[in-house]
Amino acid sequence: MLYKQFIFKTSLLVLITSAICFVVFHFFYPQRLIVLYPLLPVVFGIVNILIFYSLSLVKDSSLSKFSTRYLLCTTIKLLSSLTFIIVFLLVKKEEVILFLAAFLSVYFIFLFHEIVSILNFFKKKEKSETTHAKT
User: How many domains does the chain have?
Assistant: First the structure.
């Protein structure tokens, strides 16, 4: 149930941020509109769903196992993002500032969404464990 809610919220966030990226680049930078900019939220949405799914597999395990999995997923996401940034900037040197602004904005929006979702997950899990302990 919680996983379906996360997918719905992430999909909604992808639609909103993609629309914002498209509108900003279409109206303010029409000569630099690359299909990549509106697709950045789609990529980060898919990555966030995969991370949340991976974390949901170890949700009943120990906190150390969960923490290790989260750190692994976050490290892979960060290193993949840095690799993508470097490759893109080597290919399109003239769009450095514009690309970095768009990429980092989308990255931090989805990072914030991921962290809030995981914290909510723990709050609900803690509440359900407290409820089961009382009965």
Answer: 1
